[in-house]
Specification:
Elements (H helix, E strand, L loop, with lengths): L1 H26 L3 H10 L5 H17 L3 H13 L6 H13 L3 H9 L6 H13 L3 H13 L6 H14 L2 H13 L6 H13 L3 H10 L5 H13 L3 H13 L6 H14 L2 H14 L5 H13 L3 H10 L5 H13 L3 H13 L6 H14 L2 H14 L5 H13 L3 H10 L5 H13 L3 H13 L6 H14 L2 H13 L7 H13 L3 H10 L6 H14 L2 H14 L4 H13 L3 H14 L17
Helix pairs in contact: 1-2, 1-3, 3-4, 3-5, 4-5, 5-6, 5-7, 6-7, 7-8, 7-9, 8-9, 9-10, 9-11, 10-11, 11-12, 11-13, 12-13, 13-14, 13-15, 14-15, 15-16, 15-17, 16-17, 17-18, 17-19, 18-19, 19-20, 19-21, 20-21, 21-22, 21-23, 22-23, 23-24, 23-25, 24-25, 25-26, 25-27, 26-27, 27-28, 27-29, ...
Length: about 600
Amino acid sequence: MVQIEKLAVRCSHTIAEAVKKVTNFYKQGSLEKALQHLNLMDSQDTKAISFTYVRLLQECGKMKALEDGKQVHAHVVELGFESNIFVANTLVSMYTRCDGLVDALNVFVNMPNRTLTSWNALIAGYAKQGNYESALMLLKQMKIECLKPDGRTFVSLLMACANAGALEQGKQIHIDVVNSGYGSDVFVLNALLDMYIKCHSPRDAHEVFGSMNRRDVISFTTIIGGSIKHGDSKEALKLFHQMKREGLKADGLAFVYALNACANLKALEYGKQVHAEILECGLLSDIFVGNALINLYAKCGCLDQARDVLMAIPRRDVISWTTITAGFVKHKKFKEAIELCERMKQEGLKPDKVTFVSLLNACASTAALQEGKQAHADILDAGFEKDIFVSNALIDMYGKCGSLKDARKVFDEMPERDTISWTAMIASYTTHGDGAEAFHLFRLMQHESIEPDEVTFVSVLTGCSHVGLLDEGCSLFESMFIEYKLTPMLEHYGCMIDLFGRSGRLQEAYNYLTTMPLSPDVKLWKALLGACKVHGNLELAESVTAHIFQLQPQESAAYVMLSNMYAAAGRWNEKVNLRQSMDKRGVNKQPAHSIVEREQIL
């Protein structure tokens, strides 16, 4: 008996050594040597050979090396091991992991015997592609052959439904899960949570979560991520707190979700607590956690803290730099944003599309044309010039920097243009006073059946105002709600007031303000008051200022403008009375001031 046990141990050592030697050859990049060693193995030791094939095929699957896997398959057939159930099952699994579903199916169909592992391997392959129809068809066939699905089967089926967004089929599998006795299996329930979240059914996900007798970190992480995905960051933080209360230790992904929820809610203080926990757990070295921290501080306007985190994380990637750059742009620290992009390049990292968009926004906001042109050159080198988001940002940058020729060149060379492209180009012409070209471009946009949005109409109406296209502007304004079903906002009414005011149609402008469905703000009334001053309509100016004083009694600019109009008309008594009214109400004229930008000398 002792001799038999020793022989068994020796045999197991032999198998382990063979497997190790063959897999080491393969990991070192020599499949040929691995297969040669297999040829040299004792042909009688079928157990060792089959185990070695299994491990070698697993390595091919892990590395997604389809061609290598096919060579090993050919070797398997040559030596007659294709009928070995363990080898055949591993072949199916290898092919599915390498996205070779046709080959996997061929192996599966030709297997003389199939086990539950065989079925699960093929179902997992279809699940990976989101092909729930084929996965469900296999389930039916499996049941016909009197094989009952297990937890792995259900996890794969639910993954297929999740990837395809097949909610109703997922619900049917949920029923099968319960009927098959897997309603308390935490792995299956986690797959159910994931399926309901990806199929946009958070209520069902929360019902499953609430019914779980045992929950692990994956359960909480899945439901927390789902809450954020469906716009409920408060619920996400409650669940994160509950997870800790139940004694579960958060992993990197849970911390990322918690930080994202804090960023969405601008919950800076709670975010700082999470930051402290991350340091305590030693997870700052996790690049995803570090990037989420940068995002939190950047969104909350704590740019120095965001920069501190950036410098503290041991490894920085493009997302790290892009996140902090976007934060500086959002908070109007444009020069610093440009400097950060330059430092990123110095570290040997190439900007991605999102980085370039943030950089171009910074250049646009500071009219930094030379930096913008350098960014454009980098974009061409990186091959992003055909990306619609990058091109739109380029048009905006060139337009705001006053280089209309460059903006139009980018616009004309775009392989496809969307509403934002046209709007950016129209706004560029409007900003620089070329209302006629802005209006012409808008007509071309309509001709190409590109639907304008609210921002487009602000730009083109402003352009019409600049060149006095009154009838065209009125027609466009009407088309907003009649043709395009867009609801005019205060900005659009402001354009119309400016259009009527420049054309001297002051009474029509007044009628617009008194009959519009929105309540006009002080800015709109002041615009009309300015037009009254230009055209010397004192009577209407008095009515307009009455509306301004009703909304904002301390609005000194309106008092001053009306006072000047009284003086210009020689109505000194009214001017004195107005001045006394100002003193009585405690209204002080705001002193004029100028801003001089002083360049720091280093």
